[in-house]
Amino acid sequence: MASPPIPPQLDHLITRPFSFYPPIIGIEHNEWLYKKASWSEILVVNCKNAEEIWISRRYIGEVSRVDDPVLIVGLTRELEYKRGMVVPFQRRVIEMPVAVGGNPATAREGERPAPGLIVGIRMASAQDKRMFKLIGAAVTVAILLYILAVSLSRQRVVFTARDQTYMGLTARDDRTEVVVKLGEPATDRWQSESGDLQCEALDYPDRKLTVILIGADRNSVQYVGTMDKNWKPVHSVRLRSGGTTDSLLRGLKRF
């Protein structure tokens, strides 16, 4: 038995790909080829996955006269691909909930329901306020702990050679400048190092620091760094050669 004739409006789609509009819901790739027709349906094949589906002729609309950028075959209604069949797409209508204390019967009849209670809204607002207060308290505690940690570890901070000054002291300062900037030391000690270098230690117990000055003689000593109460360098200065006095301070015996 011969196949039914191709509908006149689709006879030019045998070798030309086209797209449905609106696209069929549930099928990702919207590019098709016309294959054949019966008296009530047409058979099309998807160009990407070669899937064949039958569509009722009553859902087929007009074919666009222009194929730029793609030829369009109109559908008279939205269709959905479900369980191997193309069926009309049913949009679900979500019924709005009835207000608290309202009457469902009167709501359906279009009457305005009585105002709902707002107790729940007030409770949610109060909970939000409490949450913000807790977050603010946690941030405040974290900041205070950080400040306390920095304060307690201040004496353990090691300054690198990139620090140009420490308590206002620089490599150009002699004993007089140190006294002007820090005041008179509690004690003043001297020691001779190898090569007859003179080392002077100025103690500041209130600061828990000892300022070290070194020079060829006692009249030419200059600031080279600062030691903490455990005789560990907390500050060194940069030398003209490019190095620092850090190694010199670490090798200096306590006196």
End-to-end Cα distance, whole Å, is: 119 Å
Q: How many helix segments?
A: 4
Which series of helices and strands comes N to C?
A: EEEEEEEEHHHEEEEEH
Mean pLDDT: 81
Strand composition percent: 25-35%
Order of strands across the biggest sheet? 9-10-11-12-13
Radius of gyration, whole Å: 45 Å
Helical coverage, percent range? 10-25%
Would you count the extended β strands for me?
A: 13
Structural class: alpha+beta
Low-confidence stretches: 155-163
Overall outline: elongated
Biggest β-sheet: count, sense, barrel? Answer: 5 strands, antiparallel
Question: What does this molecule look like?
Answer:
It is a single chain. Helix content is 20%, strand content 26%. It has helices spanning 104-108, 119-152, 175-182, 246-250, and strands at 19-21, 32-37, 41-46, 52-56, 60-63, 72-75, 79-82, 85-88, 187-192, 198-204, 209-215, 222-228, 233-236. Mean pLDDT is 81; it is low at 155-163.
